[in-house]
From TrEMBL:
Coiled coil: none annotated. SUPFAM superfamilies: SET domain. Pfam families: SET, zf-MYND. Residues 50-90 form the MYND-type domain. GO terms for molecular function: zinc ion binding. This is Uncharacterized protein. Keywords: Metal-binding, Zinc, Zinc-finger. Residues 1-234 form the SET domain. InterPro entries: H3K4_H4K5_MeTrfase, SET_dom, SET_dom_sf, Znf_MYND. GO terms for cellular component: nucleus.
């Protein structure tokens, strides 16, 4: 069932926006849409994602034998897609020499569904900002015209539909969302006008999540009745100049949120946030500890020329990503990038870009070279030193999926000094289960995976004495002193492991 706890409100500087109809708690669903207006798998993901249910599968997907473009995970998905759109789409795709761009495939679906007609009376997107004038002046305009004409011709729609088709492409350019998997991997394109009215902030109070075709807009923070809903259109960990440049290029506005106006870095932004905390994670990092750390980082920060540093680091990162670079040369380039970021390291400004970027690449390097213990310590370091500040809400989807990745990585480690890896896996999964209710939602595919992992680890723990049971009690907040003590020890071990990352990579 669809949910909508928002209304459209006109704002002075931002045009139409969304406000909540009543008080909202963190984690609440503000808008929930079972089947958005348009949702399709993007060209780059067609080979690994089912075009109907948007499940990712490394193997086993069956390609449509007629058009050879889309794939499905089951006969049921194939049959649903055939009835709803693919019968007509397939006829066109199989005649084309190559797959049209994702936005054109989307537009073709809308034309075939008769959702785009010559003179729309009141289609759902008509009130949305289109930036047609700005697009007309941009390099993208010729492509938009060509794409609109092609979609109209291929779908054998009347020529007078071209103007509406151009309008839809302009609105999609400004208003469409990237569909992602639970771990933020992009896989598709979604155009859902009811959510598109949400304006941008670099300190957003909501986040969009996809669960297959299902789309939700969830609160990151408590929101008062009538307050504006904001989402982030971009990666908010970028520098102010990068954020403003991207927003100007793609959305034609200059962001004037508090973070941009004051050019606040990650620690100052974190100190201005007031997220609801999670009692279990207190044992991991303690809110007081991280507030004190953020205060210290703000007062000690020297003037570092981050843009210059960033451009040098980006050069090294792109060389390291080059397919011809050997794994050992890749690691040397990444360590070089850390070495030139010395001013950030010296003042422990680990949450400041480009530090998290480099660490993430180092983590991926260790993962792909199966160096799991090192991958684990780098990932823990990222969580404790970058994510806690860049994403202040414990249930922020990026933080929750990161904890889940750490938990899964622990399963690849045979044994480790100072830490019981099985119990650490269980402890983190308990945290993910509790937080995931507010980030991904009960019954989501992500939560089903978490439950499966919990089932596995509890089965192993049953053969290992009472530690598993005590941790289960701790997870339910019915904790005995013993459960609390186990959890405290585990978190202490994980913090020590995170510190190892620095010794290793610096
Ligand atoms: C997805 S639409 C949001 C709805 C839009 N305000 C409308 O009236 O249709 C994106 C556009 O809204 C405007 N916008 C969004 N966030 C803004 C902000 N923080 N400041 C100024 N304009 C903003 C920009 O024109 C942007 O291209």
């Amino acid at each position: 069932m669809d949910i909508n706890n928002s209304r459209i409100v006109k704002y002075l500087e931002q045009g139409n926006g969304l406000a909540v109809n009543h008080c909202i708690e963190e984690g609440d669903v503000i808008i929930g849409i079972g089947d958005p207006f348009l949702i399709i798998v993007e060209n780059g993901a067609l080979d690994r994602v089912c075009s109907q249910c948007l499940t990712e599968a490394a193997s086993g997907l069956k390609r449509c034998t007629a058009c050879k473009v889309v794939q499905y995970c089951s006969l049921a998905c194939q049959s649903t897609a055939w009835k709803t759109i693919h019968k007509e789409e397939c006829r066109i795709l199989k005649k084309l020499p190559q797959i049209p761009p994702t936005a054109v495939r989307g537009l073709m679906q809308l034309l075939l569904r008769k959702a785009v007609v010559a003179s729309p009376t009141a289609p759902p997107w008509v009130r949305l900002e289109s930036h047609t004038t700005e697009l007309q002046r941009s390099k993208r305009w010729d492509d938009i015209i060509l794409q609109a004409k092609a979609a109209v011709e291929w779908t054998a729609s009347p020529r007078e539909y071209i103007e509406s088709a151009v309008n839809v492409l302009c609105r999609m350019a400004t208003n469409a969302f990237r569909v992602t998997l639970a771990d933020s991997t992009p896989i598709g394109l979604c155009f859902e006008p009811s959510v598109s009215f949400a304006n941008h902030s670099c300190m957003p109070n909501t986040a969009i999540m996809f669960d297959g075709r299902h789309m939700t807009l969830r609160a990151l923070d408590p929101i008062k009745e009538g307050e504006q809903i904001s989402i982030s259109y971009i990666d908010v960990t970028q520098t102010r100049d990068e954020r403003r440049r991207e927003l100007k290029d793609r959305y034609f506005f200059t962001c004037c949120c508090d973070k941009c106006e004051r050019d606040d870095g990650p620690y100052r932004t974190f100190l201005k946030s007031t997220p609801v905390q999670d009692s279990r994670l207190e044992l991991f990092h303690g809110q007081n500890n991280i507030v004190q750390t953020a205060q210290a980082r703000c007062s000690e920060s020297p003037a570092i020329n981050v843009p210059t540093l960033l451009s040098d680091v980006n050069g090294l990162l792109s060389r390291s990503r080059d397919a011809s670079t050997s794994p050992s040369a890749q690691l040397s380039l990444l360590k070089e990038a850390l070495a030139i970021s010395k001013p950030l390291n010296q003042y422990k400004l680990f949450a400041q870009t480009p530090y998290p970027l480099i660490l993430n690449e180092i983590y991926l390097h260790y993962l792909t070279t199966s160096t799991y213990a090192k991958a684990l310590s780098v990932l823990l370091f990222i969580y404790l030193n970058c994510d806690l500040y860049n994403y202040p809400q414990p249930h922020h989807p990026i933080r929750v999926t990161r904890l889940f990745s750490i938990a899964k990585l622990l399963k690849s480690i045979n044994g480790m000094q100072n830490i019981d890896v099985v119990s650490a896996n269980q402890t983190l999964l308990i945290c993910v289960r509790n937080l995931g209710v507010k980030s991904h939602g009960v019954g989501s595919r992500f939560m089903c995976q978490v439950e499966e992992e919990i089932g596995d680890v509890e089965a192993v723990q049953r053969t290992r004495g009472d530690v598993g049971l005590r941790l289960v009690e701790w997870g339910k907040e019915e904790s005995t002193e013993a459960g609390m003590e186990y959890a405290r020890k585990i978190f202490e071990g994980l913090r020590i492991l995170a510190e190892d990352a620095l010794i290793d990579v610096l």
